[in-house]
Amino acid sequence: MISISPTTKRFLLFLIKLLIVGGAFYFIYSQLANNDKLDWEKFIILFQKNQSIAGISFILLLSVLNRFFEILKWQNLVLHLHKISLPEATKQVLGALTAGLFTPNGVGEYAGKALFFKKSETKKVIFLNLICNGIQMILSVVFGIFGLLYFNAKYYIITSKTVLILFGFCFFLFGILYFSKKINIKGYSIERLIHKINEITKSIHQKNMLLAVCRYLVFSHQYYFLFLAFDVDLPYLTMMATIASVYFLASSLPTFQFLDFAVKGSVAVYFFGILGVNEWIVVFITTLMWFLNVVLPVVIGSYYVINFKTLSPTLSKGEGDET
Predict the structure, then answer these.
(1) How far is Cα 183 from Cα 24, in angstroms, rounded to an integer?
(2) Per-residue pLDDT for 31 more than 60?
(3) Strand-pair partners of 256
(4) What is the DSSP letter of 307?
(5) Nearest to 261 by CA among 245, 284, 278
(6) Is 322 in contact with 309 (CB distance < 8 Å)?
(7) What is the per-residue DSSP string for 78-117?
(8) What residues pair up with 188 in beta bridges, in sequence order?
(9) How many other C-beta atoms are found inside a 10 Å radius of the C-beta of residue 252?
(10) Which of 64, 69, 106, 261 has the greatest number of beta carbons closer than 10 A?
(11) How far apart are CA 173 and CA 94, in angstroms?
(12) What pLDDT was estimated at residue 317?
């Protein structure tokens, strides 16, 4: 077995940190500088017309609340293992977000959070992160389905027969999952997963659900208020149903975090195009949402990545030792 000296380990760790942070900033710059659909001249004209310190502060506050609720969710779920402070939860969430920027659907985020814990806790941390992201996905699906039904009732994109077929397919899928819950594949089954979920106390689940709802309402309304800032005047329910539909369909597609706005932008252009909203406005708002809720947290998360210290196997949580 090849032995690596502590100096080499420190150098390799520093190199990995540098690659993650450097890669994050490169992809952010690339997406903003090379997007032909972003009409900066129109944006500057509209910004100068509607600029408001109170309005900008409000939109930024919603971005802070969006990540704050995510941090509180993680701090709450980790109580299943042990208590962590709010600054520690912030470091783990933002650091993992940066590490997961280049991976499909933020898969790297799972490994990123696990690095802040002892190796013996890796599986538990990955499972908790699955719960953390899973509840957000479930909310996107629930709100998204209602949003699609409302949108379809007004604009009749698909026929009622197609809607019934889709619902029938969903019930059929749930039926298969229910009757196959005891099937064991390499030691894993749906029944065992449910049992693991039930091991977490009810109070943690309830708080997780509440914080997830708060987060969903924050970022969906941030989208709504940005449309208002761009002089898009449509009924509230129509706007919220469209936003819910966009988030549901976009989150169902496999993508990378740094391409998230491009995927959401494409889906949003289609739906808001039906409402008669200019394409450049939709693209700009989607890009702003990505910038405010991904880019800015990644910038802060880069600091935590650079200052990351691994845990020695012999030390307990909180006694970091840089290797």
Answers:
(1) 41
(2) no
(3) 104
(4) T
(5) 284
(6) yes
(7) HTTT----HHHHHHHHHHHHHHTTTSBTTTHHHHHHHTTS
(8) 185
(9) 14
(10) 261
(11) 35
(12) 47
What amino acid is encoded at 115 in this protein? L
Length of the chain: 323
φ/ψ (deg, to 5) at 185: -120, 110
Tens-digit pLDDT profile for residues 268-279: 888 888 898 888
> What pTM value is reported for the model?
0.79
Checking if the pLDDT of 73 tops 60, the result is yes
How far is 312 from 116, CA to CA, in rounded Å? 11
Instruction: Summarize the confidence of residues 127-152 as an average pLDDT.
Output: 90
Q: What is the 8-class DSSP label of residue 185?
A: B
3-state helix, strand, coil in the chain (%, to 5): 75, 0, 25
Q: How far apart are the first and last CA of the chain?
A: 19
Which SS3 state, helix, strand or coil, does residue 188 take? strand
Q: At 308, which amino acid appears?
A: F
> What are the pLDDT digits (tens) for 299-322?
888 888 887 776 544 444 444 433
Q: Which two tokens stand for residue 36?
A: 């032909």
